[in-house]
Amino acid sequence: MTTEGAAAPIASPRPYEEPLVSVRDLKKHFPILGGFFRRQVGAVKAVDGVTFDIFYGETLGLVGESGSGKSTIGRVMLQLDDATEGTVTFDGIELTAIKGEQLRRIRPRMQMVFQDPHASLNPRMTVASIIGEPLKEHRAAKGSARKERIEELLELVGLEPGHANRYPHEFSGGQRQRIGIARAIALNPDFIICDEPIAALDVSIQSQIVNLLQQLQAELGLTYLFISHDLSMVRHIADRVAVLYLGKIMELAPGEDLYEDPKHPYTRALLSAVPVPDPKVEATRERIILEGDIPSPAHPPPGCPFNTRCPMAEARCSAEVPAWRELASSHWVACHFAE
Question: Which residues lie below 8 Å from residue 24, measured CB to CB, with a gap of 6+?
Fold first, then answer.
């Protein structure tokens, strides 16, 4: 696994032989058009060469600041957006090399839970129509079999089957997200991308949704990419965690290793901002305050993308891209000075 040159294998914290999803040197650049003829004058490098694996049955957490490229990675992985460069391989099938009917046949195995349950549900459709839409589109069930499947899915996510004929506005935010999850699992997928599924919910509801996702993972054998900026919640659900900054992965490690012994200065800064539920510890611990703002992905800095805000930065950091290296078992980092 590497951001420069050939990809090196990533060790898994579990004894899986092969990954379900493999992402290699993935890039997504959005063109900047200018001038009278609207020609391309630059590009927004939303994702700029990321490489990682997701193994069967695990949850990989993807964290980073807003604008770091987290959601773009998820959309490109599902081929909702085309990749600029790189490959996404799902269960041995290179998704970036197929189109049309070939891609449509594989889509039932890959689904997404969106951030805003209010915006992702059609307000003019009943809950039964929303959950039944993928079943209808892929001809997975019809008639009474579809109705029974919809009721089964509602029960599975903790909702009343009798509410199937209601509309989304009649439900709370947490209930709407449960409807979105029911839609995502309707076709018995293997892999689900959870794109900040709790960000728009009340704090009191967030843990319920995370617990539901974990329960469904155990019951249905699901594999997750869990995208979030909430590091405390990611710690609760993720087996491994990847830290993203300006379209590049800075650190990737098993969850406990990353939280207990972060190697990258950016990861340390993020973790220092997570509140500790102990007033004495919270009052005495040291916060790492980063200076400046995240650079524009249209004009990323040379060398290490974090060098303009890093408290450890030296001249080498702005001149040389740090190698992606394994410091400890399954603990990868892109920093010249990480030890």
Answer: 7, 51, 86, 87, 88, 89
Nearest CA-CA partner of 164 in 134, 127, 135: 127
Residue 280 phi, psi (nearest 5): -70, -45
DSSP 153-220: HHHHTT--GGGTTS-GGGS-HHHHHHHHHHHHTTT--SEEEEESTTTTS-HHHHHHHHHHHHHHHHHH
Residue pLDDT, tens place only, 52-97? 999 999 999 999 988 899 999 999 999 999 999 999 999 999 999 9
- Model pLDDT, residue 11: 37
| pLDDT (mean) for 215-244 | 94
CA-wise closest residue to 63 among 290, 298, 273: 273
What's the pLDDT at 130? 96
